[in-house]
Amino acid sequence: MPMHMESDLNRFRKIVRGKIKKELRRFISSGDLIARQGKKQVTIPLPRIDIPHFQYGSNEQGGVGQGNGEVGDQVGQGDPQPGEGQAGDSAGQHSLEVDVTLQELAEILGEELELPNIENKGKKNLEDKQYKYTGILKQGPESLRHFKRTYKEALRRAISSGNYDPENPVIIPRKEDKRYRSYRVYNLPVANAAIIYMMDVSGSMGDEQKEIVRLTSFWLDTWLSTQYAGLERRYIIHDATAREVDQQTFYRTKESGGTLISSAYRLAQKMIEESFDPAEWNIYLFHFSDGDNWSGNDTAECMKILEGQLIPAANLFAYGQVESRYGSGQFLRDLQKHFGDTSNKITLSQIKDRDAIVDALKTFLGKGK
Asked: What are phi and psi of 155, to 5 degrees?
């Protein structure tokens, strides 16, 4: 890639990052990116980047090489040609779709929300270096020489200088022909991490509340995936009872009936005991509910499980209370009253609507746990 093209590409990437940052709150509160998510990247529509294009004026005078005629005819007024529609003089609406890696999307999220990197724990807390090739340079070590690019440069030079012989197509690269791969080094923690998502699916939790949970979880996942090389996810849904489900079921299940929050906490405790040794795993617990619980006795049981089992084992316990017309919102107040500001491993957030997701992410991830 010629140096001016590489410079243009870097400039374009900066423009894209700037556009994403400007529209980040909108992207977070809408489900567009989740629908466009691939395995390692998302496709982002950026309609505000203008693509260069020709704009035709209203001059009807024919030009040289246009219209009917023979060689030697006098240039003059061209014959009018039939057409359809009417020419406009305003810019059209152009849409550009750009593929952005989840790694880069997480970096933008971290920059905008000023998220600290997570302080990992566990015996496997080691750093591994990942090399990512990002472009082509004219200088570099021979071990990184790009054969095809070097050959193309040498062939282009030979043809342009007239030294290329098709009968004897020998190409000998010179120093100025050589091209090398450029790369960046990322330090990735090797420590294992597990996310246990819990969601109330009782009758008071509607479709909009579940969509807010889905959007919040996507961005939590995106950030945590960049902090850990190995990340496992488990999903628990609960009403009066709790059960483990897959990701699709987690977001689509619709139940009815009452709520016993302690059932979800007991199942999470069992998962940790069976699969995630706190000495080896960085454990994250995210619970979403509209705040209704069956009784004060069950709320007291929840506090007991949290205080004695879940919080000591986890890096972070985060409770997000989504606004519901049917929910009392009492559980958030109970957590605030019981724990107050005594534990730095607990974060609580009230998510009234989609616009509040950004503030919830900042609250959940802002401690760097």
From this structure: -65, -45
Same structural domain, 147 and 250: no
Rounded to 10 degrees, the C-alpha dihedral 102/108/109/113 comes to 170
Are the C-beta atoms of 278 and 316 separated by less than 8 Å?
no
Residue listed under structure tokens 């009018």: 80
Q: Which two tokens stand for residue 182?
A: 């450029």
Residues 353 and 220 in one domain: yes
> For 157-202, what is each residue's pLDDT tens digit?
888 888 888 888 888 898 889 999 887 776 655 567 899 999 999 8
What is the arithmetic mean of pLDDT over 120-129?
53
* Same structural domain, 133 and 210: no
Regarding whether 275 and 326 lie in a shared domain, the answer is yes
The verdict on residue 69 lying in a domain is no
What's the pLDDT tens digit per position in 268-293?
999 999 999 998 888 999 999 999 89
Nearest to 262 by CA among 253, 270, 251: 270
